[in-house]
Amino acid sequence: MSSLERLPRQRPAHPPGEPVVQLHGLSKNYGAQQVLAALDFTLHKGEFVALVGPSGTGKTTLLRIIAGLERASHGQAQIAAQSAVVFQDPRLILAQRVWKNVVLQAWRQPDARQRAERALAEVGLGSKADAWPASLSGGEAQRVGIARALYREPDLLLLDEPFSALDAFTRRKVQDLVVDLWQQHRPGVLLVTHDIEEAVLLADRVLVLGAGEVRADIPVALPRTRDTTSREFNVIKRQVLEHLGRAQ
Ligand SMILES: Nc1ncnc2c1ncn2[C@@H]1O[C@H](COP(=O)(O)OP(=O)(O)OP(=O)(O)O)[C@@H](O)[C@H]1O
Ligand SMILES: [Mg+2]
């Protein structure tokens, strides 16, 4: 299958919506270690941004601060009220059936089951509502994690290396699924990844983080569907790699 065939269909371009993340002078220290240094960054609803950077440079810390799971040391962060996070490991509760893993604490709400089924159907798991997590494949488990995020109808979707534990084929399918869902629901997306090709394939902008600072903010002005073998694609990929090399 060529890279063109596997990419999602082109949709009309949407103008960016309101800001869903606004960071001003955001810093984070752990004791004497400064992890993030005076970051300024804005992400709009409908925008897809990839965040790359060497290991230990503060990507997960930044995502956790944006998700409200961690406090910044200094600076301001204005974040959309409705956000959802998907981690590398979907962190399913083994003692709960799939649909309860989607709704979490909201399972007593009268429409919870129905909404969970709808979210599961969107990720291609309509028949798995009553399955136990242990019976799922890695790709299915990660799709439950995505359904859990969808259930919250987020304006902001935060993804921390969500595809990295998947085999190459499943990874492509789940990448395509995320792009399709993004194009349907238009949240702002912030995707942390170590895979430069994935960043250029999926995002409108690639941010390169180095030592807690934004070292580059590279637009990917390529129409979707993107051809990973095209000259333009590889020019941008090289640009990202060069900045990443300097960020080490
Ligand atoms: N709770 C914590 N307490 C102390 N130090 C921490 C804590 N969380 C993260 N750190 C440190 O902050 C730095 C950045 O960590 P972070 O997990 O954000 O990096 P990362 O860019 O996501 O790396 P990777 O690509 O390996 O996932 C690391 O040096 C890490 O050890
Ligand atoms: Mg990380």
Q: Ions, cofactors, ligands: which are bound?
A: adenosine-5'-triphosphate, magnesium ion
CATH architecture of the domain at 18-94 and 155-247: 3-Layer(aba) Sandwich
The run of helices and strands is: HEEEHEEHHHEHEHEEH
For the record, what is the CATH homologous superfamily label of the domain at 18-94 and 155-247? P-loop containing nucleotide triphosphate hydrolases
Individual helix count = 8
Tell me roughly what share of residues is in helical segments: 25-40%
Shape: globular
Question: Quick check: average pLDDT?
Answer: 91
Q: Sketch the major β-sheet.
A: 6 strands, mixed
What share of the residues does DSSP label as strand, in percent?
Answer: 25-35%
Strand order of the largest sheet: 5-6-7-3-8-9
Evaluate the radius of gyration. Answer: 18 Å
Runs in which pLDDT lies below 50 for 5 or more consecutive residues are: 1-12
Task: Describe the 3D structure.
With 248 residues, the protein is α/β, with parallel strands linked by helices. It has a domain at 18-94 and 155-247: 3-Layer(aba) Sandwich (Rossmann fold), CATH 3.40.50.300. The protein is 34% helix and 25% strand. It has eight helices and nine strands. The strands form two sheets. It has a six-stranded mixed sheet, with helices on both faces. Helix 5 (138-151) runs parallel beside helix 6 and helix 7 crosses helix 8. The longest helix has 18 residues, at 168-185. The site of adenosine-5'-triphosphate has 10 residues, from helix 2. Magnesium ion is lined by residues 59-60.
